[in-house]
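hi! just following up on the protien thing from before. the input was this:
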Amino acid sequence: MICPSCLSFILYNPIRKLFTDRDNVLEQAGIKNDTVVLEIGAGNGFFTEAIAGRAKKVYAVEIQEGMVRKLLKRINTLDDRDKIEVIHKDIAHAELPDGLADIAFLYYSFHEITDKEKAAQTIARAVRRGGKVCIFEPTIEVSKRKMEYTLKIFESIGLKKEAEALTIFTRFARLGKP
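and the predicted 3d structure came back as:
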């Protein structure tokens, strides 16, 4: 279930900031100052602002109108706002240029996508050769079996699993595009 925009305070609050080491997450994803990032499921900008502070460019994809409004409001307060482009689309139906990004970043979002196969194809096309798809999923909502299914979707279109990790709250996988 997609978190409705009326509950966006759950996604961006002091407690989540305390328990989520955004710098560590971005480090795991390999995001550096020369990286172009495709963020899928940007929500109200909890990670968008952190990515913009570290990356060269962020394409923040968000499907919900209410979240897009909150995301744009947050972006307007940032020093790095010129690095962010918001794309108000369902990732499964977004027309993105091939090789747009170095890294596709999905934090607690892939399990909410309805057309996973089509979304994976769009994401894979938008990542350049040698690029990465980094998927973080909540353990409370995504079982080991569901994560394996997600990885099989991406592997079936040619991406290769490079890393996998499990913490108490998060399942993580990084796939490379040969």
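The first strand starts at residue 36 and ends at 40.
Residues 144-156 form the longest helix (13 residues).
cheers
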